[in-house]
Amino acid sequence: MIYLKSLLNVIDNSGALVVECIKVLRHKPKSCAQIGDQITVVVKEAKPIADGTTSTNKVKRKDICRAVVVRTRSPFRRPDGSMVKFDDNACVLINKNGEPLGTRISSVVAKELRDLQYNKIVSLAPKTF
């Protein structure tokens, strides 16, 4: 579960490395985010911009962006009864239309994203778990 001030790893190539959750965008009474929920984040760490070269970084430190939670450390139950728990909290940065900012995703994502219509994120990921 992702709460206010939670730190998440960014697993795409948008330029951000670590982000902090500042708002959970939900219409439910809970104030925590789970897999597939959109959150508003602020970039805490980003890849350094090299001098004299064109940068592929789309975000820099202190930028405010939207993100989709793709992994959580908190265990959750799937409809078939199995419990799934990941090693870290991770997200993918998106724009307001729900399309990812990066062109690659470097790690696995949860397969629940396919049911939530994040097909572009699932197709960029090397593996769904």
From TrEMBL:
Coiled coil start-end: none
Origin superkingdom: Eukaryota
One BP term from GO: translation
A cellular-component GO term for this protein: mitochondrial large ribosomal subunit
A Pfam family that the UniProt record links to this protein: Ribosomal_L14
CDD domains attached to this UniProt entry: Ribosomal_uL14
Keywords per UniProt: Ribonucleoprotein, Ribosomal protein
InterPro entries xrefs: Ribosomal_uL14, Ribosomal_uL14_bac-type, Ribosomal_uL14_CS, Ribosomal_uL14_sf
GO molecular function, one term: structural constituent of ribosome
Family per similarity comment: Belongs to the universal ribosomal protein uL14 family.
Functional note: Component of the mitochondrial ribosome (mitoribosome), a dedicated translation machinery responsible for the synthesis of mitochondrial genome-encoded proteins, including at least some of the essential transmembrane subunits of the mitochondrial respiratory chain. The mitoribosomes are attached to the mitochondrial inner membrane and translation products are cotranslationally integrated into the membrane.
Name of the protein in its database record: Large ribosomal subunit protein uL14m
Origin species: Spathaspora passalidarum (strain NRRL Y-27907 / 11-Y1)
